[in-house]
Amino acid sequence: MSDIVDEINRRHRKVGVREVEAGEAKTVLLRRSFDADIADVWNAVTSPERISRWFLPVSGEFKLGGRYQLEGNAGGEILECTEPTRLRVSWLYGPDSGCSEVEVRLTPEGEDRTVLELEHVAVVPDDFWGQFGPGAVGIGWDLGLLGLARHLAGGEIGREEAEAWSKSPEGKEFATRSGEEWGAAYAASGADAQIVASTTAATIAAYTAA
């Protein structure tokens, strides 16, 4: 339990809005420091072989303007790539997903430590946001960065093992605490307390099958 609490507390979360060409977009931002140099972290988040070891198998043309596809998940276009500090991609489910982008920013913190910021910007249907709020995507990214943290620390976890862990009591506790923290970030953005409570409960239930 202490490991879960420690990992949850290592992250800073922020919820906001931004005007984009397609309209008003919701933003979720996750920040975490890793005990690894910036070159190693950059390689971990851009190398197809390494991405498959902590996240999902990925295929595509890995260059600026190229397209990628995560197995059973999102795909899109590589929009910006500035080694070793910035990667921005579109993040789409299906051909008509609308505006959705993910940006990863890396900043060195001394010689052997790196701060990673992951920001997901998307135009979200009002009914979906009203039901689940930011935790729907936020918990997923918390789980993704958990995999990255274990990978950078030298640990490996297979896809089947990861799926089994997510259904375990420990995995459900992680999702619950993550959902609560995203609820707190949503409240800090100025959201109504009743909406925060209902969306947080719905998202946690969805992830834990409660």
Model description:
It is a single chain. The chain is α+β, with helices and mostly antiparallel strands and 210 residues long. It contains 8 helices and 8 strands, in the order H-E-E-H-H-E-E-E-E-E-E-H-H-H-H-H. It has helices at residues 2-9, 38-46, 48-54, 126-132, 135-152, 159-166, 169-188, 193-208; strands spanning 12-20, 23-34, 58-60, 67-70, 75-82, 86-90, 100-108, 114-122. Strands 1-2-8-7-6-5-4-3 form an 8-stranded antiparallel sheet. Strand 4 and strand 5 (75-82) form a beta hairpin. The longest helix has 20 residues, at 169-188. The two termini are 20 Å apart. The model has no long low-confidence stretch (mean pLDDT 93).
Total of helices: 8
- Class per helix and strand makeup: alpha+beta
Number of strands: 8
Query: Measured on Cα atoms, how large is the radius of gyration?
Result: 17 Å
| SSE arrangement, N to C | HEEHHEEEEEEHHHHH
- The chain-level mean pLDDT equals 93
Principal-axes geometry comes out as globular
Largest sheet: 8 strands, antiparallel
How large a portion of the residues is in β-strands, by DSSP E? 25-35%
Roughly how many Å apart are the termini? 20 Å
Helical content, roughly? 40-55%
- The low-confidence runs, each spanning 5 or more residues with pLDDT under 50, are none
Strand order in the largest sheet? 1-2-8-7-6-5-4-3
